[in-house]
Amino acid sequence: MSDVDKRERQSLWSDKGGSALVEAAIVVPVLIVFLSGVFEFSWYFYQQHLVAIGLHDATSYLARSSDPCNPGSRAWKTEQEHAKNLATSGSINGGTPRVKGWTGAMVTPQCTKVDNPRANRLTRYRGASVYIVTVSTQVPYSSLGFFDLVRMRSPNISAAFSERAIESR
After folding, report:
1. Which residues of the chain have pLDDT under 50?
2. CA-to-CA separations, 160 to 32, 53, 95, 108, 122, in angstroms, rounded
3. How far, in whole angstroms, is CA 19 from its chain's centroid?
4. Which residues sit opposite 140 in a β-bridge?
């Protein structure tokens, strides 16, 4: 190898022209993937928040209904359907879903009876039946594309909310 070849190679290694372009070619794809991930997870948490708000609304509606947790009541069955609509769309009559693909069939209301006996001096608020109304759901999350990009399966949004209902019968 001649001295001219050695000098040319050394000058190539010390040449700074175009280094910004090479750095940008390395950093920009990583930055795009990172920002896409941030946007995707922000969207996921927003959708999860909308589901949680819907379940809170439905549970509060059921806990304050006229005849809570009475499976023999026609009003209770109607109120359950209204609560499902309220959870998914924000209206008891239904409408556009809060989260894409979320339907009333995915919402599960449940009542659990809790014993509330009168004891010693604790008679106030005791004696009537107390129910815990729980509304839960599981919604498949429709990804914006990031999970497909990194070849991951989209997660499900799972949520539940509970509230007391004091029987008025």
Report:
1. 169
2. 35, 10, 22, 9, 31
3. 44
4. 156
Tokens of 86: 């309220």
How many whole angstroms separate alpha carbon 27 and alpha carbon 127? 67
Amino acid symbol at 165? A
Task: Name the token pair of 166.
Answer: 């004091």
Q: Output the six-digit token pair for 66.
A: 């006229």
Q: What is the pLDDT of residue 149?
A: 81
**φ and ψ at residue 162, rounded to 5 degrees:** -125, 150
- In the chain, % of residues over pLDDT 90: 53
Give the per-residue pLDDT at 100.
92
Question: What are the extents of the domains in the chain?
Answer: 3-166
Q: What is the CA radius of gyration of the chain?
A: 29
pTM of the prediction?
Answer: 0.78
pLDDT of residue 121: 66
Write down the pLDDT at residue 167. Answer: 61
* Contact residues for 33 (Cβ-Cβ < 8 A; gap 6+): 149, 150
| Per-residue pLDDT, 156 | 93
- In angstroms, the Cα distances linking 86 to 53, 81, 93, 128, 144 are 10, 9, 8, 28, 26
User: 3-class DSSP state for residue 161?
Assistant: strand
From CA 54, how far away is CA 117, in angstroms rounded?
33
